[in-house]
What does this fold into?
Amino acid sequence: MSMRATKQKATPAANTLGLHKKGLAFYLKRDWQLYALMLMPLVFVIVFKYMAYGGLSIAFKNYKVAKGYAGSEWVGFKIFEKIFNHRDFGPAVYNTLLLNILDLVFSFPMPIILALLLNEIRVKWFKKTTQTLLYLPHFLSWVVIGSVSLQMFSVNSGVVNTLIANAGHSPIPFLQDDAWWLVTYVAIGVWQSMGWGTIIYLAAITNVNSELYEAARVDGANRFQQCLHVTLPCIRSTIVVLLIMNLGKLMGGSFERILSMSNAKATEFTTTIPVLVYRWGIQSGKFSESTALGLFQSVIGLALVLLSDAIAKKLGEDGLL
It folds into this structure.
């Protein structure tokens, strides 16, 4: 082998070796604009996600604002015993689980069904228009959605009840009766989230091998059977991961959603853990109780994620971790 050929073969390896020897300063100098863009969200995460962990200590203290973290008395788990025995704790846990389980049952399958339907649309302009309209509710704040729901479902002047009254029927108290409020709450949640949730599923569907559909058509499968026996099994891992993440939110919930849809006549299901944290911490100044309740909520959520991930792996799925 000639010397020139030897040098030519050695050059790529030498370049690779030289690339690995370049330090952090080289990449900071070359891509400083990208690192500058990343700096602000990184500072936000550090300040509000990690530095805030120090504040969890007040869940174990009789915290007084005037005394601060260091001067407040350490009481251990007495704060947790206090909130567990509080009259609002049981109803808050029950309502939180009820609302989130209903959300999981009705809101979780809808993006999957919607993604399967959108995938079957062959007219591109109609598909894009439909997707855009379905995405829009996600970008509306819950304050706006609550105001619109009041205009739509009010007993006296709501658009829906006006139509019902014109048809000769009695108005329905969608927001004034506890049972109807629960139905309205879940329905609006499905409407708000189902369009945005289709994005991940549509991305997963695009990765399905087209040869599988061709083989299914050769075997005589219609479009519904193709969705059932080809598309769904191929996106099963994505469904499992998102299901695990949603199970971790069973003890959570949206404070803004509850607050924007609350009223004085329907109060049975509006006391949830996030609402209780707000009442105790912001309205009443019970910082130790609200922190302890929030910590309890987070620990249970983490436990649910780990448990559901372990169960998924036992059933042969990849899981989350």
In short: The two ends are 51 Å apart (CA to CA). Residues 178-206 form the longest helix (29 residues). The chain has 17 helices and two strands. Residues 1-19 have pLDDT under 50 and may be disordered.
